[in-house]
Amino acid sequence: MIWGWEGAGLQYRKGGESSYTLVEMSAQVNQFTGTIPGIEVTSRGIEYYIFASDGMHVSYDPPLNWQASSHAVRVRVSNLVATESPTGGSDQTAYRMISVPVELDNPTADDVLVDDLGTYDDTEWRFQEYKNGDWVEYPHTGGFAPGKAFWLIVRELGKQIDAGAGMSVSTEDSFPITLNPGWNDIGLPFNFSASWSDVDVDSSKINGPYLYERFWDIPSTITQLDPWKGYAIKNLSGSDVVLTIPSRSGAGASLGSPKTTSGFMEDLAIQWYIRIIASCEEAMDPYNYLGCSGAALEARDALDLSEPPPVGSYVSVYFPHLEWSASPDRLTTDFRPPSSGGAMWEFVVETNITSSLVTLRFEHAESIPGSSEAVILDSSGKLCLDLRYKKEYRFDCEKKKSFLLLVGSEDYINREKHELAAGAYVLYQNYPNPFDDTTILSFAVPVQAKCSLSLFNLSGEMVRKIAECEYPAGRHEVAMPAGGLPAGVYLCRMEAHEFAGTRKIILLK
Question: Could you tell me the CA-to-CA distances from 21 to 67, 169, 288, 305 in Å, in that order?
């Protein structure tokens, strides 16, 4: 017995594990000692608590909430080696994000990569950082740091990355990452996996996480963050957002498998949807969705996910929404509320691969209900594809090409085709009208043009500038919320080049 204590024990675990392992402590003169096996001391760090008993009572250190708030010990690592080798291949398939889950003694790309991959040669390997909307290439990139991700491509398969010496990141507290407005590439700061559901962030202000492995996966399929990988997150707000990665989420336990894309559709309560898959040579963009959902709004909502920046030699599909003055964006998913008439989506195909055809494949058009048809038109109104009979379209993209996808009755589609083919500027009647919350303003332009939409009261006073920007040829829609406007009759005016058109709008309260 030492100072009244009959015995003591030490409970330890690696960082990220959910259960502890017991070490019986032995009495040594006036103290108890216990040893954690060296094989358990890794770059994950160590967490432990101690307990002692006098035969009647047990005391703990730390004294309160000892399991969840156990002591954390940072571990020194002599040479941390990546768990996976870089994927070898071309810039159409082999780019990957990379992060290092420790605090390195020497964090520069020279120290981490050159000794493994050789002198920098962008035909053999290439290292970049996506920062503030621009690509920054070695040697102008920043250094590796916990929570930060970079882009790496290696031509030759089988290269191994050893990051060098460093210290594990303390699991005493959660790890905050500041997300600047726009796109941010982040990594896991700890050398163990973490559940995305445990990450603390205002989800209404972000889209993500996105994972790039040959192509971008949509966020809802990603349930787990893994060390050494990188993830893209878009901050949709105009100010910094803090994302906090928990250090003690029980991530060592089974987290389940990522959701499938069909599970993603079930979660969104989709009534019908069409998936667009684009390919050009080996490059792909397979996750692009449009459709109808009872949970969707006319304005941007949680179902509208941003299209991440293109990487390397790419092909990309996106739904442009430059008319959203608060947050103009390119989307990879574009869902609308149910409509008794028809609906039109504009989508753009973009590639930097020259002298090759782009293939578009359309899936799940059979989910469209009733007698509605679905057709693909180019921006002039020319029919490219009737999805009742054919699901694939090949064309020479020449960098960028816009399309329209129409879903509705035969009369609706014929009317839209006629108006587009006529090559006229058109301001359509808003819908719904009258309205009490949000209405949709639709218009068409025969060529790329700067357009403005303004709202006037019956006294001729402009009460709101609805939209003003450059629009490509085709039909476009702008959501106008009623917030701040009193009930009454208004006039919506469209101006583009020498065209001017007006529609009467009725707001109910």
Answer: 12, 21, 47, 43
- Which amino acid is located at 430 in the chain? N
Phi, then psi, of 366 in degrees rounded to 5: -70, -10
User: What's the rounded Cα separation, in Å, for the pair 94 and 171?
Assistant: 33
Considering the domain architecture, whether residues 251 and 169 belong to the same structural domain is answered as: yes
- Domain that residue 81 falls in: 74-256
Are residue 132 and residue 150 in the same domain, yes or no? yes
SS (H, E, C) 337-402: CCCCCCEEEEEEEEECCCCCEEEEEEECHHHCCCCCEEEEEECCCCEEEECCCCCEEEEECCCEEE
Pairing of strands 357-363, 392-396: antiparallel
- Quick one: tokens of 192? 């163990």
pTM above 0.85, yes or no: no
Is the N-terminal amide bond of 432 cis, ω within 30° of 0? Answer: yes
Q: Is the dihedral of CA 93, 95, 99, 100 positive or negative?
A: positive
Same domain, 130 and 197: yes
Q: Give the tens place of pLDDT for each residue, 273-305.
A: 999 999 999 999 999 999 999 888 877 888 999
The answer to whether residues 187 and 230 touch, using CB atoms and an 8 Å cutoff, is yes
Q: What is the pLDDT of residues 363-375, one digit of tens each?
A: 999 999 878 899 9
Residues 453 and 464 in one domain: yes
Buried b (16+ CB within 10 A) or exposed e, 461-496: eeeeebbeeebbbbbbbbbbebeebeeeebbbbbbb
Quick: pLDDT tens for 53-103.
988 889 999 999 988 899 999 999 999 999 888 888 999 999 999 999 999
- Same domain flag for 17 and 117: no
Residues 97 and 188 occupy one common structural domain? yes
**∠ CA(55), CA(59), CA(62), 5° rounding?**
160
Question: φ, ψ for residue 203 (rounded to 5)?
Answer: -65, -20
- Residue 341 corresponds to which tokens in the numbers above? 């008439």
* 389 in the same domain as 340: yes
Which helix H or strand E contains 413, and what residues bound it?
helix 410-421
Q: How many domains does the chain have?
A: 4
Find the radius of gyration of the CA atoms of the chain: 28
Among the candidates 30, 52, 73, a domain finishes at 73
